[in-house]
Amino acid sequence: MTRHPMGAAFCLAIGLTTAVAAPLHADFDADSYPAYETCALCHGLSGQSRLDRFPHLAGQNPAYIQAQLAAFLSGIRRNDGGQMSSIVTELAPEDLPVVIEWFAQQDPPPASDPPDSDLGQTLTAAAGCLGCHEVDSDGAVPYLSAQHAGYLSKQMRDFRDGRRDHGAFAEMHQEIFSGMDTGIDEIAAYLASLERPE
Predict the structure, then answer these.
(1) 11 annotated as belonging to a binding site for a ligand
(2) pTM of the entire structure?
């Protein structure tokens, strides 16, 4: 018996449609992945981000990470586009200590090359930045050393312009950076060149 070529094509099409329509059962289980991988897309798995719009979290003060997560969750800290406020809601309360410990225990990021000028060091001393942000600071104070200079510059300008207005020291930062422009970049470059402690 001769088979019609259109009949074979029809059977093939039906078979493919059935295969596509059948439910797919992958072995992927999102719950089996550690919570910090949610943060890794922007901040890097080891806490060293590739883009300066996302801060390095590696070796950061755990109390500071905890305070910022709480601020994003409560809505008192906002960022451009609300990405962090959205992402942190994906983390269960029991995930937060895991995320904090993971990033705080990673090796700190490398410092950038020292700036050519000493102006940043002079301005940093005048602003008193390291008086609170030095390596042995207590409380929820971030390390600024070895951070992206671009990130630091933006945060200082956000404080200056009132866009970052949460926290007990927002007004102090606003006053420190008031009227400062290029000096902010000098401070950021100097801080980025400092080694973060292990």
Answers:
(1) no
(2) 0.82
Angle at 49 between CA 45 and CA 51, to 5 degrees: 145
Residue 93 · residue 29 · CB < 8 Å: no
* 133 in a known ligand binding site: yes
| 132 among annotated binding-site residues | yes
What is the chain's Cα-based Rg?
25
Signed CA dihedral, 58, 64, 65, 71: sign only: negative
Rounded mean pLDDT, 71-80: 90
Task: Go through the chain and tell me how many residues it has.
Answer: 198
Q: Residue 145: exposed, middle, or buried by beta-carbon count in 10 A (0-12, 13-18, 19+)?
A: buried
User: How far, in Å, CA of 133 to CA of 123, rounded?
Assistant: 15
Tokens of 66: 């905890």
Question: Token match 């929820």: residue?
Answer: 140
Contact 152, 161 (CB under 8 A): no
Positive or negative, the CA dihedral 43, 44, 46, 48 is negative
172 assigned to a ligand binding site = yes
Domains in the chain, please, with CATH? 34-108 (1.10.760.10), 110-198 (1.10.760.10)
Count CA atoms within 13 Å of residue 144 on its CB side: 23
Q: Is the pLDDT of residue 51 over 80?
A: yes
- Six-digit token pair at 128? 């008193």
Tokens for 76? 């008192």
